[in-house]
Design a protein that fits this description.
heterodimer; A: 362 residues; alpha+beta; Cytochrome-c3 Hydrogenase, chain B; 3-stranded antiparallel β-sheet; 9 strands; 49% helix; B: 143 residues; alpha/beta; Beta Polymerase, domain 2; 5-stranded mixed β-sheet; two-stranded parallel ribbon; 4 helices
């Protein structure tokens, strides 16, 4: 049978961001694939060397339009470690709150994208409706829906109108979302159309996950029990109960279930943070120059382990920052996931790993 | 496995004179020569169960190229290797860790370092018509 090359991207309805896949198909079977990144490469690692540590906060927040908060968190905790700063406890709790809200909205965004790409428009509508509530909460806390500018080196910056009443209202609104997210969980567990499109599709074994160094929900859906919130607690995670969700199936269905259940866990963590929120200052005073040194800073972003390497030469600008976002190792598995599958499953496979291309390109 | 056990095994099998330091957030950094890197990674995977390579950082300090292989297995472990700025060549790890492929390609594009036996052909991040110097090399930054 003759082979045909089918381009998916860089502009394609399946992809919300620019990325190029070339699929080689024989009839209805995909037999090979290649991918090309770089369509949103902005040279951020080079740009940050010309900006001081405070200016770089705004740059790193723009690495990603979905998990913008966790990027500044990882950067800040790296710089704070170089400075030897102890961030106030209230700020640590608020960082967890923002991280978990971001995880909820990122997972719901992904659920909507997956559903839409598979033609399940109702789930898409419901998922994005719930996500709006979270974006509203984040806007109320920080003033921004996507870029929050809520982290500063040495603490957090918050809408000055936020008080205990605000926290109580947020807790009530999150409680109001639980029933809908549980309904999503029921859909994943019981809805036959969704299962038919996702079960046995995009399979990755635990061994493949380890070989390709895959992280986050994609790894947990293949039975790899790893989560930095529990394994290497940062911010206030050592004081909170984080249940790590894993499943063994390793397909798109398991990834869906893991993410939906992680939304429920994140809601519980948010409730605990809001009920135990300590009083106190939000920031500490920070010197302008950072002493010479290196640091490796990690955190569990919505898509998994996010890592920043920072080197300071003692000036007010970083000498080197390297960022590895969790999408990059997931992309490395696409060749294996796309091989020998039906072309109709390409949409589920591409959506299933929750690609964030701006993150991967930087 | 405890980090001290990992370091002991590395010392016994790969580098008797192991230089070790700890970074502020707890990352352990081990200094290696380029020749020691591959046996060290084989030991980490085979003897210590450390196989998650988080990323590879390439850093042009102006005097030499520093390659940092950041591993994670409950604790952070970074293998630090120095390369000369001219003709910077090191062995690839993709046969041991397939996930290293993109990391090595990125370091090659950004810092013009050759990974021996890496089957890369085209750019991954930079435009196809990019024929200038590697963007993160110092002479580009100082221009």
């Amino acid at each position: 049978m003759p082979k045909t090359v089918v381009p998916i991207g860089p502009q394609h309805p399946l992809l919300k961001e620019p990325l190029s896949f070339l699929l080689t198909v024989e009839g209805e079977r995909v037999v090979d694939s290649s991918l090309r990144l770089g369509y949103v490469y902005r040279g951020i690692e080079r740009l940050c060397q010309d900006r001081n540590y405070t200016q770089n906060l705004h740059l790193f927040e723009r690495v990603c339009g979905i998990c913008s908060y966790v990027h500044t968190l990882v950067y800040c905790q790296g710089v704070e470690a170089l400075l030897g700063l102890q961030v106030p406890l209230r700020a640590q709790y608020l960082r967890v709150l923002m991280c978990e809200l971001e995880r909820i909205h990122s997972h719901l965004l992904w659920l909507g994208v997956l559903a839409e790409n598979m033609g399940l428009t109702t789930i898409f509508m419901y998922a994005w409706r719930e996500r709006e509530t979270v974006l509203d909460i984040m806007e109320e806390l920080s003033g921004g829906r996507v870029t929050h500018a809520a982290n500063v080196i040495g603490g957090v910056r918050l809408n000055p109108k936020v008080d205990q009443t605000t926290f109580d209202q947020i807790a009530a609104r999150l409680r109001g979302m639980v029933a809908q997210v549980e309904e999503f969980q029921d859909m994943v567990l019981n809805e036959r159309t969704l299962q038919a499109r996702t079960q046995g599709v995009g399979l990755l074994s635990a061994e493949q996950i380890r070989r390709y160094c895959v992280v986050g929900p994609t790894a947990r859906a293949s039975g790899v029990d790893v989560d930095l919130r529990r394994d290497a607690p940062y911010a206030a995670y050592d004081r909170l109960n984080v249940r790590v969700i894993t499943h063994q199936a390793g397909d798109v269905w398991a990834r869906t279930l893991v993410r939906v259940q992680e939304v429920l866990v994140s809601m519980q963590v948010c409730q605990q943070v809001l009920s135990e929120m300590p009083a106190g200052p939000l920031t500490v005073k920070v010197p302008r120059r950072v002493p010479t040194g290196e640091v490796v800073s990690r955190a569990e972003a919505p898509r998994g382990e996010l890592i920043y390497y920072l080197r300071s030469d003692g000036s007010d600008k970083p000498a080197r920052v390297h960022i590895r976002t969790p999408t990059l190792p997931s992309l490395a598995t696409m060749g294996e996931q796309l091989r020998n599958i039906n072309t109709a499953d390409v949409s589920a496979v591409l959506s299933g790993v929750d690609l964030c291309i701006a993150c991967a390109d930087r | 496995m405890d980090i001290n056990d990992v370091l002991r095994i590395l010392k016994e099998r790969c580098a008797p004179q192991l230089t070790v330091r700890t970074l502020p957030l707890g990352e352990t950094v081990v200094e290696l020569t380029p020749e020691q890197l591959r046996p060290a990674v084989e030991t980490l995977i085979g003897q210590c169960g450390v196989c998650h390579l988080s990323t590879i950082t390439g850093d042009d300090t102006g005097r030499e190229i520093v390659l940092l292989y950041h591993f994670w297995e409950g604790v952070g472990l970074t293998l630090r290797v120095l390369l000369p700025r001219e003709q910077a060549v090191i062995s690839t790890l993709i046969d041991l860790i397939p996930g290293a492929a993109f990391y090595e390609r990125e370091v090659t594009e950004m810092l013009d370092i050759m990974f021996e036996w890496h089957p890369m052909s085209t750019h991954l991040f930079l435009p196809d018509d990019w024929h200038s110097d590697a963007p993160l090399r110092k002479q580009v930054q100082d221009a």
